Amino acid sequence: xxxxxxxFKTGIILLLxxxxxxxxxxxxxxxxxxxxxxxxxxxxxxxxxLFSSQLQKGTVSNSYGFFSLSLPKSxxxxxxxxxxVGYEEQILSLKADETQELxxxxxxxxxxxxxxxxxxxxxxVEQTQMSTIDLSIKTIEKLPALMGEVDVIKxxxxxxxxxxxxxxxxGIYVRGGSPDQNLILLDGVPVYNAAHLFGFFSVFNNDAIxxxxxxxxxxxxxxxxxxxxxxxxxxxxxNMQKVQASGNIGLIASKLLVEGPIKKDTTSFLVTARRTxxxxxxxxxxxxxxxxxxxxxxxxxxxxxxxxxxxxxxxxFSLYTGRDRFLEENKNTVTLEDQTQIEDKEAFKLRWxxxxxxxxxxxxxxxxxxxxxxxxxxxxxxxxxxxESLKSVDNDDLSNSNFLSYQSQIRxxxxxxxxxxxxxxxxxxxxxxxxxxHNFLPGATQYNTDTINTNLSNIDDINTQEYAAYVEDEIQxxxxxxxxxxxxxxxxxxxDKWYFSVQPRVxxxxxxxDNWSTKASFATMTQYIHLLSNSNAGFPTDLWVPSTDRxxxxxxxxxxxxxSGKINNQKLTLSxxxxxxxLNQVIDYSQGVNFLQDGPDTDLVEASxxxxxxxxxxxxxWNYGGEILLQKNKGRTTGWIGYTLSWSDRQxxxxxxxxxxxxxxxxxxxxxxxxSHQLKENIDLSGxxxxxxxxxxxxxxxxxxxHPEMDFGGGIISVADDYExxxxxxxxxYHRLDFGINFNKNKKWGERTWSISLYxxxxxxxxxxxxxxxxxxxxxxxxxxxxxxxxxxxYKFKLQ
Length: 800
What we know:
Layout: H1 2-26, E1 29-38, E2 49-52, E3 57-60, E4 66-72, E5 77-83, E6 90-95, E7 100-106, E8 132-135, H2 137-142, H3 152-156, E9 162-164, E10 172-174, E11 182-186, E12 189-190, E13 195-196, E14 201-202, E15 209-215, E16 229-235, E17 244-249, E18 253-263, E19 267-276, H4 278-289, E20 295-308, E21 313-335, E22 341-366, E23 369-392, E24 399-424, E25 427-449, E26 453-457, E27 462-477, E28 481-494, E29 497-511, E30 516-527, E31 529-532, E32 543-546, E33 554-567, E34 572-589, H5 603-608, E35 616-632, E36 637-652, E37 661-662, E38 669-680, E39 683-692, E40 696-697, E41 702-706, E42 718-722, E43 729-730, E44 734-747, E45 750-759, E46 767-775, E47 778-785, E48 790-799
Parallel strand pairs: 1-7, 11-16
Antiparallel strand pairs: 1-4, 2-3, 2-5, 5-6, 8-15, 9-10, 11-12, 13-14, 15-16, 17-18, 17-48, 18-19, 19-20, 20-21, 21-22, 22-23, 23-24, 24-25, 25-26, 25-27, 27-28, 28-29, 29-30, 30-33, 31-32, 33-34, 34-35, 35-36, 36-37, 36-38, 38-39, 39-44, 40-43, 41-42, 44-45, 45-48, 46-47
């Protein structure tokens, strides 16, 4: 309690000091403010650099393209350089004698092949924030695709400090953290399950995305609620000038995007949809050989409308909805000795999906104060059903059936307001507050037979409230030193229990020279919701549960330091970072407990009778390591090399005899090589090679008899596995090579691209999971692999 009070007291003193200095210098400056837009579409541009070399002052446009630059009042003409990756540089000349509001329009650069630049939108060397990566959509589109589907999350997996889960999955494990410790935002709304096709694709449609930012540490105070990372994704706003359409036809899915003005320069719309057609292609096979072939499809839809009321007010509404459906049916007819025919039918259904929506209002109170007010809604649900029936073909009275259904969901309603305040070029202050109402249904089971109709629930609905407020200041001290200082405070209410947290954040930057900088950061985080993982295979059968009066929030603190610089005449960028992260009150299942472990069968009935709070252990964790990222930013050949050396350990009093053990995604070495080459103006090649140490897994070291008293002379009725150490074994190392080539061509009607990809080019049999096969006394450890070499082709078009 004393430490919390000291944090709070320090934060208030710091805030008063910053505000005093900020308001003291406002009257001495004039302000140049406005928006930066794409000249062809009127899309606002995020992270545009505006800099005056004469005055050594500058700023960056925010998430809505707004900028505010305070300059000393002067009669002299000054020049402001405006630069943004992928766009032509502009030089703006103006007199700094009065406050001005501007709309700056940038034009896409038609690059010469020798000066192609496809990297992040802002310069890593000059950012105060460390452990941050901004991914260019153009870079992502050039990467080799799995089954023709370009995936944002798979591109993030290629970055140092980010681990993938198992073969092919789109989950991310950042700096030793678990999946629930990633805050994934789509237009500011949390996405609780970001996976399609059992985790092999993410829910994010690349065509609808405007920008992607990954934060691995040194979190600014405006972010909270998770321990390991933030993936901040913003959707496009829609073309304000003309109607455009684009699409993609791949082996597994097709998608279509339409955007344009409802009223030119005032209102625009964007709609994009995607659907797989495996179920349609498999239907003739199912009809031919019976219904034992699984039937599966997913779809998703993104929509956005934005309206400009005036130069000071703008309204956005964005929506995402997506759903996966899996069905497997088996039918058999058995003839008994008395010639009675019995139809045996089994059906297994699995469904999951997300809905997110956001209504956002931008308002300019002045040329120095920008506000964004947001109302959000988020919903995630999964449900699994299993039905079994035996029925006489000739006699309807002879039948027997049972039905089991299990579902879990989380629903959020939220409101928040964020302010960007630009008192001077030395200070950029962000502050705001938010409130979220969570409704959890951790798990509900329904079990029906011919004689029983039972609704079982392992816990009733849980309603919780989460509140947060923050303030942060980006401070420029002299020409070489910058700092981002902030405080994030939060509160959580559940079952008449309140939790409070005050989280200081500090990021420091020092420019050693024009090309080299050093950075350091410290951040504390608190997380009030948890994910109970049931499967390593990427299935969506995980349970979202809140902190309760019995289960405290997860907490962490992380310290990081590093250097970054430009080498080889600024053609290469090198970043080296080290980090140490301590986690407290992390949770895991108790020994031998795992809901849905054996699939949706009658075991669920027993599981539902046990409260999840009784089935978990609370412990601590340690994550530490180092990361290297070398990028080639310009030229016909671009790409990066990433390497991570890391350790991730957990400790629970009642697990592994109370001793530390490696977390299941502890991977000592992780390496990625990504190369893109512009062969000709209309042909580009890409390739990636990844290597990582195998996952830590738990395997039995022996077996022992169960219920030996039931041995009636014919042998042991059953045996159980004996375990010595948790995660005491390692899978084989994972490595894979992918290739891709794009053929682009301009047509009278627009542009078209043929993309050919080769996934797992040398057909490495990477481990998906391990299991023991055989009989007692003659067990053999067997590896199951998922993807051999997979070629794919897709066709993309854009109508002008």
